[in-house]
Amino acid sequence: MSEGIKFHLDENVSNAIADGLRRRGIDVTTTAEVNLISASDEEQIQFALTEKRVIFTQDDDFLKLHKSGVSHYGVTYCRQRSRSIGEIINILVLIWEWVEPEDIKGKIEFI
């Protein structure tokens, strides 16, 4: 088994999700922490690809980029206001526990 998925949260995601994942020992970066506030979605994807991180987003634009063929390390997507912060954290933890990084690379996981 590999070391597990590392996540990158885009700027529209609550910091409470990053905090919840970190309390569970999961490696997470946020857009603010890596100085990507106001960066384009393409720059976010490039950062995550370089760092081998799966992006968690609630931004539909990432779905469009995936559909257009942009390379990425993986995207987990949740429609805004469809789940609570606690539900999102629990689902991301399950993904971290059960999905190998190489199995999500270049794919979208809807939650």
What does the model show?
This protein is an alpha/beta fold. It has a single domain, classed as Rossmann fold, CATH 3.40.50. It has helices spanning 15-23, 41-51, 61-67, 85-98, 101-104; strands spanning 7-9, 28-30, 54-57, 75-77, 108-110. It has a 5-stranded parallel beta sheet, with helices on both faces. The mean pLDDT is 95.
Mean pLDDT: 95
How many domains is the backbone divided into?
Answer: 1
Low-confidence stretches: none
Number of helices: 5
Q: What is the CA-CA span between the terminal residues? A: 24 Å
Radius of gyration: 13 Å
CATH fold-level label: Rossmann fold
CATH class type: Alpha Beta
Order of neighbouring strands in the sheet with most strands: 2-1-3-4-5
Shape: globular
Beta-sheet strand percentage? Answer: 5-15%
CATH architecture: 3-Layer(aba) Sandwich
Query: Approximately how much helix is present in the residues?
Result: 40-55%
Short characterization:
The chain has 111 residues and is α/β, with parallel strands linked by helices. The protein has helices at 15-23, 41-51, 61-67, 85-98, 101-104, and strands at 7-9, 28-30, 54-57, 75-77, 108-110. The protein has one domain (7-110): Rossmann fold (3-Layer(aba) Sandwich).
Main attributes?
about 110 residues; alpha/beta; Rossmann fold; five-stranded parallel β-sheet; 5 helices; about 15% strand
